[in-house]
């Protein structure tokens, strides 16, 4: 991928890379694979990293970013990092602590974009019910 990847100008005059690397992995995928894949993505030229608290791999994603910064491959400002607020934390008093928890796990000073992951609020101890199709 061309390291001079294309960007889109947002209405606040900041830029976001048009192509992002998603870090979601199924629970059975070892977290070391997330670390490895994120490093490879940065080496390949990805500059937008999309992650979330719900993915349960923020430590590995943060380590990958920090290691590529330490190697001189990128600077922090080269990476556009997106994270997401989980649906049990929509109450106003939970937003900042949720972001701070993610930053601590990532060991980064800031995120570039913080989204609401799922537009429906859930109570803290309520999980998501996955409805599967029955085999024919």
From TrEMBL:
Domain of life: Eukaryota
Residue span, NADP-dependent oxidoreductase domain: 19-120
Keyword annotations of the record: NADP, Oxidoreductase
Pfam short name (any one): Aldo_ket_red
Gene3D superfamilies in the record: NADP-dependent oxidoreductase domain (3.20.20.100)
Protein family membership: Belongs to the aldo/keto reductase family.
Protein name: Aldo-keto reductase family 1 member C1 homolog
Species, as recorded: Galeopterus variegatus (Malayan flying lemur)
Organism phylogeny: Eukaryota, Metazoa, Chordata, Craniata, Vertebrata
